[in-house]
């Protein structure tokens, strides 16, 4: 049904919004900086 | 990723689900390698912050690149026994 298509489009748009890349600065505005250390990934880390 | 792209799109996620997990009850001597190893199994990690002060030790923030990976990690690691401690995992609001 056409409605399903529109629903998927809206959900896809919402998903894209919730999955948009976050910059380091954005993360610093969202997450606490005080008392926390940003740790670098180990050399062996391979994102799956 | 077990879910195919099509089923991902039609599945509406609850509003509180997001990519940033706040983890508590971590062992104090946890290392970045341990964190990336444990949380990295569920998807690509954007950033990890580990508490390094008396008030924040034993807690961490784990940010995933993809919201579905964060949900899978949260669902699986809630109550996970790590070095004798049960992890508390929640979406950071």
TrEMBL record, chain B:
GO terms for molecular function: mRNA binding. One of its GO terms (biological process) is RNA splicing. Residues 19-93 form the RRM domain. One of its GO terms (cellular component) is cytoplasm. Keywords: mRNA processing, mRNA splicing, Nucleus, RNA-binding. It is found in: Nucleus. The lineage of its organism: Eukaryota, Fungi, Fungi incertae sedis, Zoopagomycota, Kickxellomycotina. The gene is SF3B6_2. This is Splicing factor 3B subunit 6.
